Each structure stands twice: as structure tokens, then as C-alpha cells.
């Protein structure tokens, strides 16, 4: 029956008799007898579980002897081992909220090194069905880090409007203007954090309830159908995240050149920047540890880790971002500065030094005193 459903390219084995522990122990034993060095078993009742969690389990087994994927009801939906340990499968009260705890205690008594993945939710009883529905509908959390953005954030939030199956979170970094008030007026949920873009985005993600996370700059406007565009991309199981094309306004010929360069870089190198509105699966974001809390290049560092796991999607519909930073320093100077910072990053210059260079203000020349004294 399973082969008719899933196809002949997989190997199928009968579980045999016994309780859940006996059947899992048998599966591990048989695979270790086939000279497998690491073995991972997963349940089929956890809609949040993806192939990326399986890969994370195998990665963790390189440095740990036991990997568990705990569930919110006290059990687990994934278990991985490097060698057979029969004790963790015997006389467990399967189907109760003590399964994960009891397994951990027995593993500790055996001296095993243990890695727990992030907590997911499985479906055991009718009351758990909302987890299945939520995974199917792919709810979306839009997370906006902000600091003194009163001149731009209203337009950004009003254009988002009310999201079907979603939420908007603004993480304020200590604004001294009306940013927080405007965000609340627009219906966003407002959190506070110290001023650090990576830290602010992590703070928002930690409170988000969406299956998908969209990180948006406060001066960037999304396309009208952004949520459906994202959800369509994320229905593909190999896609781990993605971004949009970029349009900079008010526009100039040089800024249009930057837009084309962004499209080329994103398509060829799968390296979008934060101003392109990066989106990612929430479970995967937490699995890999979120953004690095560094002064600069947190978006590049995150995408470089993310693209090792799976496909980075590119939506050719643009988000519209403000040209203010190009107007402030001059487009040509901004392009050169961006290239130098990226070059320095790949040369492993510390992000703190890159930030000092990037944010360094141009010194104003002192005006000569033209007054005369007699």
C-alpha cells in the first residue's frame, strides 16, 4: 500500500510486532547490522517536521551519540543514534508526557552525549489538529526591526495591512521619535530590544507564531500580493527561504544599475541582502540559531548558512525601498563602500571594524572665519 502511494524508489520494511519501543529498537538494530554508522527514525504525525530536521539530526550525530526532536506534548518525533542503546526503549510509558524526560534520564545514566533539536508539535488527538491546519496554511509573521523610523514606518505598515493567517511585529531598538506610537496605531505588535538589527530580528522571531518568517526593513514597501507569493514559493519542499527583487525610489540611472546588479547577484550567487525582504521557514530559522548578533553583515552571514541547507527562492516582483542612504552619501560612494565591506567580510575582517568603516560619518570642514579685527 505504501509503495503504491510513495513509489518504488524507496525501501520498505515491516515493523514487526511489539510496542513502539520494541519496534523502534528493532529498526535501529537491523540498520546497525547493515553497517549503518548513524541511524535516524522519524514519526509521520508531525506536520512541522521537514527534511531539514533530518539533516540537522545527522549533522548533530557527528559530535553527539543521541539526538532527539522533542514535541510539545512531552514525547519526541525524531530520534537518532550512533550505536545501539536498548535501555532507552524498554519499559517506557509510550504516549504519555514523560517519554522525552524518561529517555533523557536513561541516556544520561548511560553516559551518552545528547543533542535536543527545537520543539515541534505532533498530532495525536483531535485537539492537535490546529497544528496540522497551521502547517498546511503556512501562517506568516512579518518582523520589522526599527529605530527612529517615524518618517517611513507608517507607509510600510499601511501597505502590509491585515494579513490572512499572519501577524506583524515591530521590534523597536529604543526610538526617541514617534516610531512606537505609529506602529501601534497601525495595529502592529510592538516589542522592545537593544539597538542591533540581528538581535532585534531574533527577538521578534522568538515571539512570532507564524510558520514562515519575513524580515522587512522599516523603509521598505512590500508588493500587494506578497503573502501569496511567499506561500507559493514555500510549498516546494526543497526551498528553505528566499527574497524579492529590489526597486529603489526615487530612482536614478545609477540606482537602476544597482537594482539590476541585485537581481544578478541574487540569481547567480543566491545571496540576497536584508533590504530585499528575506523570508524563511520558522522551524528552520530556530534550528540553525537565527541571525548572528553582529554590528554588520548579519544578513549575508545568515544567508550563507541557509543556502548550504537548501534552495534560496527568488521572487522577481520587487519590494520598494527608500533611496535615502544613497542620497545621503551619493550613489557611487555607497556602491563602492558596499563592495569594500563585502570584500572585507570575505577576508574575515571583524564585523565590528566593518561597521566602524561603514557607519563612519564624513567630517564637516570647518568654515574659515572671514571676519576681520582691527
SSE layout:
Elements: H1 2-6, H2 20-33, E1 39-42, H3 51-60, E2 66-70, E3 76-81, H4 99-109, E4 114-116, H5 129-137, E5 140-146, H6 153-160, E6 166-172, H7 179-185, E7 189-192, H8 197-207, E8 212-215, E9 220-221, H9 226-234, E10 239-249, H10 253-269, E11 278-281, H11 282-287, H12 298-306, E12 311-322, H13 324-329, H14 331-346, H15 351-358
Parallel strand pairs: 2-4, 5-6, 5-8, 6-7, 10-12
Antiparallel strand pairs: 1-3, 2-3, 8-11, 9-12, 10-11
How would you characterize this protein structure?
- This protein is α/β, with parallel strands linked by helices and 374 residues long.
- The chain folds into two domains: 2-116, Alpha-Beta Complex (Spore Coat Polysaccharide Biosynthesis Protein SpsA, Chain A), CATH 3.90.550.10; 138-358, Spore Coat Polysaccharide Biosynthesis Protein SpsA, Chain A (Alpha-Beta Complex), CATH 3.90.550.10.
- The protein has 15 helices and twelve strands.
- It has helices spanning 2-6, 20-33, 51-60, 99-109, 129-137, 153-160, 179-185, 197-207, 226-234, 253-269, 282-287, 298-306, 324-329, 331-346, 351-358; strands at 39-42, 66-70, 76-81, 114-116, 140-146, 166-172, 189-192, 212-215, 220-221, 239-249, 278-281, 311-322.
- The protein has an eight-stranded mixed β-sheet, sandwiched between helices. Strands 1-3-2-4 form a four-stranded mixed β-sheet, with helices on both faces.
- Strand 5, helix 6 (153-160) and strand 6 (166-172) form a beta-alpha-beta unit.
- Helix 14 runs antiparallel to helix 15 (351-358).
- The radius of gyration is 25 Å and the shape is elongated.
- This is Glycosyltransferase 2-like domain-containing protein.
- InterPro entries: Glyco_trans_2-like, Nucleotide-diphossugar_trans, Trfase_1_rSAM/seldom-assoc, Trfase_2_rSAM/seldom_assoc.
- Keywords: Cell membrane, Glycosyltransferase, Membrane, Transferase.
- GO terms for molecular function: glycosyltransferase activity.
Amino acid at each position: 500500500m505504501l509503495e503504491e502511494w510513495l513509489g518504488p524508489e524507496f525501501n520498505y520494511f515491516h515493523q514487526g510486532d511489539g510496542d513502539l519501543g520494541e519496534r523502534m529498537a528493532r529498526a535501529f538494530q537491523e540498520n546497525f547490522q547493515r553497517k549503518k554508522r548513524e541511524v535516524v527514525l522519524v514519526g509521520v504525525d508531525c506536520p512541522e517536521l521537514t527534511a531539514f530536521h533530518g539533516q540537522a539530526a545527522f549533522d548533530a550525530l557527528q559530535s553527539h551519540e543521541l539526538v532527539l526532536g522533542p514535541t510539545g506534548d512531552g514525547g519526541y518525533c525524531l530520534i537518532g543514534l550512533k550505536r545501539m542503546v536498548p535501555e532507552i526503549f524498554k519499559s517506557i510509558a509510550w504516549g504519555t508526557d514523560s517519554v522525552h524526560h524518561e529517555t533523557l534520564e536513561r541516556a544520561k545514566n548511560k553516559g551518552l552525549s545528547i543533542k535536543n533539536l527545537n520543539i515541534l508539535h505532533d498530532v495525536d488527538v483531535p485537539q492537535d489538529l490546529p497544528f496540522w491546519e497551521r502547517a498546511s496554511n503556512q501562517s506568516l509573521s512579518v518582523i520589522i526591526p526599527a529605530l527612529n523610523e517615524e518618517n517611513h514606518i507608517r507607509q510600510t505598515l499601511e501597505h502590509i495591512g491585515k494579513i490572512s493567517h499572519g501577524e506583524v511585529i515591530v521590534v523597536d531598538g529604543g526610538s526617541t521619535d514617534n516610531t512606537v506610537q505609529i506602529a501601534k496605531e497601525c495595529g502592529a505588535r510592538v516589542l522592545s530590544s537593544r539597538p542591533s538589527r540581528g538581535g532585534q530580528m531574533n527577538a521578534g522571531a522568538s515571539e512570532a507564531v507564524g510558520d514562515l518568517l519575513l524580515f522587512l526593513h522599516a523603509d521598505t514597501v512590500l508588493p500587494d500580493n506578497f503573502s501569496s507569493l511567499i506561500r507559493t514559493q514555500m510549498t516546494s519542499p526543497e526551498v528553505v527561504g528566499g527574497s524579492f527583487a529590489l526597486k529603489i525610489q526615487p530612482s536614478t540611472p545609477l540606482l537602476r544599475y544597482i537594482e539590476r546588479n541585485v537581481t544578478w547577484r541574487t540569481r547567480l550567487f543566491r545571496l540576497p541582502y536584508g533590504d530585499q525582504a528575506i523570508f524563511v521557514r520558522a522551524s528552520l530559522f530556530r534550528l540553525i540559531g537565527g541571525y548572528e548578533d553582529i554590528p554588520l553583515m548579519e544578513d549575508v552571514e545568515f544567508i550563507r548558512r541557509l543556502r548550504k541547507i537548501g534552495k534560496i527562492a527568488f521572487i522577481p516582483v520587487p519590494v520598494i525601498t527608500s533611496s535615502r542612504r544613497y542620497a545621503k552619501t551619493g550613489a557611487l560612494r555607497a556602491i563602492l563602500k558596499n563592495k569594500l565591506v563585502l570584500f572585507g567580510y570575505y577576508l574575515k575582517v571583524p564585523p565590528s571594524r566593518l561597521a566602524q568603516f561603514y557607519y563612519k560619518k564624513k567630517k564637516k570642514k570647518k568654515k574659515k572665519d572671514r571676519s576681520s579685527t582691527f
